[in-house]
């Protein structure tokens, strides 16, 4: 009884402390958000550790910072920009189907209101133009070939969100939402990569790769200059350099892979699970149905996005047939692959 009586206050105190922390920091009450927060803190700490070792133990680098302050300023600016880009990307929306439906509903309501104000027979206009989300999405899918049953809205309806998915959309089980132009769910960022933040994700990988290369060069210069001085520091530097090399290989491969996806206007999900996507099963492997040429794909990816909820229809059978024609020397000269 005495032991139980002693344990009860401590348990009540811990419960009160956890409740107070949950009140002050709501993100700590959700296990998913708590794990995401821990990952973000761990990534920031890794950056501080790798950069801090250079400033603490590399005397030549500190002397260079005094002689060439611009060199160090640019390096620190790259560190700050990389971390800012990380948080900017992790906090951005990938573009959800539900948000696209809301935007479509607002646009449709404003158009109908303008039609009503311009025409006295507004009720007839509303009745004769039953535009809705389902009809618009189904118009983006080509009709079924002759001899096959016509596709219905149920075929493209998400079984979790119960919304009609436009082409390239997929339900993410981690976010529990349907994402437009779904690429993958990034654990390190704690969010999905989709139409709304794929460009930011690519820039973050590029900045992180450049930072890893620059930091690795600084580590190698330190080891070459002071390999026979403090062996314990050298061992720590070698371990950190090994970790940095592994991270750099992974980042380089990831950067090249996503650059290929951008040039061909594909997503990771479409490339890996091509045969599991119903409307892409009958498309040949070497045909990229959403590609508009390398140059135009790059332009659309970087500059032409007017909304994170822009939708891409599937090409018709005639367009797919034209895409499947192999390139000739004349096509290469005329830059058919680029335009």
Automatic annotation (TrEMBL):
Membrane topology: Multi-pass membrane protein
Enzyme nomenclature, EC number: 2.3.1.225
Record GO terms (molecular function): protein-cysteine S-palmitoyltransferase activity
UniProt keywords, alphabetically: Acyltransferase, Lipoprotein, Membrane, Palmitate, Transferase, Transmembrane, Transmembrane helix
Main location: membrane
UniProt key word Transmembrane: yes
Recorded catalytic activity of this chain's protein: L-cysteinyl-[protein] + hexadecanoyl-CoA = S-hexadecanoyl-L-cysteinyl-[protein] + CoA
One GO BP: protein targeting to membrane
Record's keyword annotation contains Transmembrane helix: yes
Domain Palmitoyltransferase DHHC: 155-273
Subcellular location: Endomembrane system
One GO CC term on file: Golgi apparatus
Transmembrane regions: 39-57, 69-88, 201-220, 232-257
Domain free text: The DHHC domain is required for palmitoyltransferase activity.
PANTHER family, per the entry: PALMITOYLTRANSFERASE ZDHHC12 (PTHR22883:SF301), ZINC FINGER DHHC DOMAIN CONTAINING PROTEIN (PTHR22883)
Family: Belongs to the DHHC palmitoyltransferase family.
Name of the protein described by the UniProt record: S-acyltransferase
Native organism: Ambrosia artemisiifolia (Common ragweed)
């Amino acid at each position: 009884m005495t032991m139980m009586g002693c344990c009860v206050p401590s348990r009540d105190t811990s419960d009160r402390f956890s409740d107070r922390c949950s009140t002050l920091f709501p993100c700590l009450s959700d296990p998913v958000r708590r794990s995401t927060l821990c990952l973000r803190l761990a990534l920031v700490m890794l950056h501080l550790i790798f950069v801090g070792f250079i400033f603490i133990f590399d005397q030549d680098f500190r002397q260079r910072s005094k002689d060439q302050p611009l060199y160090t300023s640019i390096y620190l600016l790259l560190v700050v920009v990389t971390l800012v880009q990380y948080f900017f990307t992790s906090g951005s929306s990938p573009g959800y189907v539900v948000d696209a439906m809301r935007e479509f509903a607002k646009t449709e309501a404003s158009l109908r209101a303008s039609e009503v104000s311009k025409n006295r027979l507004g009720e007839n206009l509303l009745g004769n133009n039953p535009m809705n989300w389902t009809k618009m999405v189904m118009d983006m899918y080509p009709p079924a070939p002759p001899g096959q049953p016509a596709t219905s809205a149920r075929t493209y309806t998400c079984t979790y969100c119960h919304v009609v998915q436009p082409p390239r959309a997929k339900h993410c089980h981690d976010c529990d939402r349907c994402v437009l132009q779904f690429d993958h769910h990034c654990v390190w960022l704690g969010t999905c990569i989709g139409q709304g933040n794929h460009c930011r994700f690519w820039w973050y990988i590029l900045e992180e790769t450049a930072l890893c290369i620059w930091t690795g060069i600084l580590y190698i210069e330190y080891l070459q200059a002071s390999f026979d001085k403090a062996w314990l520091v050298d061992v720590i530097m070698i371990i950190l350099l090994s970790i940095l090399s592994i991270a750099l290989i992974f980042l380089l491969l990831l950067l090249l892979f996503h650059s290929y996806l951008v040039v061909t206007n594909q997503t990771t999900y479409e490339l890996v699970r091509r045969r599991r996507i119903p409307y892409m099963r009958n498309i040949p492997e070497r045909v990229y149905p959403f590609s508009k040429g390398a140059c135009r794909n790059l332009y659309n990816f970087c500059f032409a996005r007017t909304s994170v909820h822009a939708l891409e229809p599937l090409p018709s059978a005639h367009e797919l047939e034209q895409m499947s024609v192999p390139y000739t020397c004349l096509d290469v000269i005329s830059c058919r692959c680029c335009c």
